[in-house]
What we know:
Elements: E1 3-5, E2 8-11, E3 23-27, H1 34-41, E4 53-54, E5 57-58, H2 63-67, E6 70-74, H3 85-96, H4 101-110, H5 126-138, E7 144-148, H6 156-173, E8 176-180, H7 184-190, E9 193-198, E10 201-207, H8 208-214, E11 217-224, H9 226-237, E12 242-246, E13 249-254, H10 256-268, E14 272-278, H11 281-290
Helix pairs in contact: 4-5
Amino acid sequence: MQKTIGKRTIIRNVSFDVHQGEVFGFLGPNGAGKTTTIRMIVGLIAPTAGRICIGGHDVRSEFIEAMRNVGCIVENPELYKYMTGWQNLEHFAAMLGDVTDERIQEVVQLVKMDARIHDKVKTYSLGMRQRLGIAQALLGRPKLLILDEPTNGLDPAGIRELREFIRKLAAEEGLAVFVSSHMLAEVQMMCDRVAILSGGEIVKVTSVEEIVANGVNRVEWNVEPVETARRVLAEALGADNVQQIAATKLIASLTQTETASLNEKLIGAGVSIYSVTVQNQLEELFLEITGGESIA
């Protein structure tokens, strides 16, 4: 697809597929065109060229049929806080026109909101509002669920809970889930494949499994004595590959297998290891492809 505004082409030759039963990550620096792409997918703006098909229906020529296959949440879901969760779902079900009370109950159970669904939304945590928003998006039994920055504002426990829930939706419900996010570590744990957008173009589509298999970790050790640790690492990896970045911290590039064996060597040499931090491989790939542009 392509989008031109005035004389400026902001999206060019963007093409990808999202498959049933997978979580597909959509990444890009600030201003790369992620939001514009999502707006075209859901029909809010029309592409200048190209086609968008959802469930076999062209968004431009078969808009109603295509949108019946889509559930979408952009950041925090729009909910009526003075109403209960159930009343919110009833309201949106009425807008769809063919959603039964049985279907409402199904999605409530799916997002595990049974205990609080009759409480007012203003009493919900952000994580609960996100789950209710997903329930709302699932009412019409979509084939594609679009989530734009779904973990924004959540605490670590809420992020983990939402990640596991999204994985379950894809694996057990067979949904195609499209996730736009700036949290690269979360995307690596959540997604099956990712597309990286830069300058309005897709520069990479790859599986997370491939990133992990082919990636080289940048590992940071917090150790004492640092001189002994540096000698052990330099002997194994080469002196040029080991850097001291603080009084007790060393960093080097190596594979996951090497990390485990080197930890054994360090301990065998009498080194105390206080922490080992492995930098995110998707982040390394993203920075390499985009030249270090900020993601947002």
